[in-house]
Amino acid sequence: MLLANTEVRPRQARLADLVRLAASTGEWAGLVRYSDSQRWYERLERGEDHEVWLLSWLPGQRTGFHDHCGSSGAFTVVQGELRERTPAAGRPAPASTAFAAGRARSFGPRHVHEVVNESAAPAVSIHAYSPPLAGMRRYELTRSGLVLAAVETAGQRW
Questions:
Q1: What angle do CA 82, 118, 107 make, to 5 degrees?
Q2: Where are the alpha helices (DSSP H) in 26-110?
């Protein structure tokens, strides 16, 4: 279990360490697949208090705005580049941050974001969540802010 040896550290830092460790092994490279119709993903590990996912992104593929139903998370890009957009009250447009290969990002249980591959090349990322995902809430970004559009429970579509 990858997370067990770092349990004394705060959850977000542990998750960032976990995705970096999973990326550094290189074991993910032979597992990657791509799908024209949707982002491809595969669970790499599931423990009592966490899970790790491998995702691939073709140009233009995106998550849409979502949260992780109370799970903290982290991701690192292992190939290509992804962009994260994060909305906030009082801002006219979401903040936007590029993540090149090797960069990790962790976030808390209330974080809402959208991740997108805006580049012309495929991208691959590794994500970790704690506790394991129970679901995801999907949002529409309107002029007046985020509006809940759907709630997915684990196992429905992913």
A1: 30
A2: none
Question: What is the rounded CA–CA span in Å between residue 136 and residue 146?
Answer: 15
Domain 4-153 sits in CATH at 2.60.120.10
Query: Within a 13 Å sphere around the CA of 99, how many CA atoms are in the beta-carbon half?
Result: 24
Q: Are 133 and 72 in contact (CB under 8 A)?
A: no
Q: pTM for the full model?
A: 0.89
The contacts of residue 17 (CB under 8 Å, 6+ apart) are 6, 9
Each residue's pLDDT tens digit, 32-88? 999 999 999 999 999 999 999 999 999 999 999 999 999 999 999 999 999 999 998
Residue 15 backbone phi and psi in degrees, to 5:
-65, -40
